[in-house]
Amino acid sequence: MRPPAVAGQFYPSDPVELTQLLERCFVERRGPGERPPPRRSAERHIRAVIVPHAGWVYSGAIAAHAYAALAADRPATSVLLLGVNHRGRGAPAALSSRDWASPIGAIPTDRDLLTALTRSPLEVDDAAHATEHSLEVQMPWLDYVLPHPRMVALSVSYGSLAFLTDVGAAVRKGIRGRDVLLLASTDFSHYVPAEEAQRKDRLALAAIRTRRPEELYETVRAHEISMCGVAPTTVLLGALEAESLEVRELRWGHSGEVEPMPDVVGYASLLLESTTPL
Q1: CA nearest 213: which of 175, 188, 187, 241?
Q2: Based on the structure, what is the number of domains in the chain?
Q3: For labeling, which of 12, 166, 210, 260 is most exposed (least CB within 10 Å)?
Q4: Residue 245 sits in which domain range?
Q5: SS3 letters for 226-259?
Q6: pLDDT, tens only, 154-172
């Protein structure tokens, strides 16, 4: 079992406090405005989501928009989480073989999906996940909105476009024929004035809407956008490039909306949806 590494820092370690904060994220002014409904659709339209991974006090309400949408959709059999390798530990494209614990439960790794994904340049390397927060902060959300979720965690380091294209191709082959939801974890601009964050993040979001992985990668590079999860998001776009999907932006915001600060971090929640049931 992979134990929580940032509980008590990015989100509460106490199960009751965690659940209370998570539910507040749905109903607060920056969130979707209400808790997820008790019933969900019999159909699934959401193929992938892009969500932030900062401390919940700052980014939780933005993430809640995507999770509220997931709570209303038919759940996928498994979730493939694509995260950031902030510390540069382990393999560049590292799969986790462990089940993941959170203060409100545990989410098992889908062994069949893990086997299907274990192909070059992806490799199993739990060292990359030991202290990384970008996927850990998603686990309680998944536990809350999905019934009996199963998942595979993949940490993607920043690299060349050719490398990320290869990772995306491997993911595409690994999920082929499987009922899998993809989730990319990323924050957007880091520690810049709010006006600059909005301007630069709009460029990145426009690139995501093209659904071309090279467009996002080159836009972030050309405009020096400090989007920490450009690698996993590029992989997600590459893996789904051939599918007929539409991008829907649910909410963009920044940390300065929570409390006054001269420099902010930008966040966004987006869906990649199919117009016909998946």
Answers
A1: 241
A2: 1
A3: 260
A4: 15-273
A5: CCCCHHHHHHHHHHCCCCCCEEEEEEEEEHHHCC
A6: 999 999 999 999 999 999 9
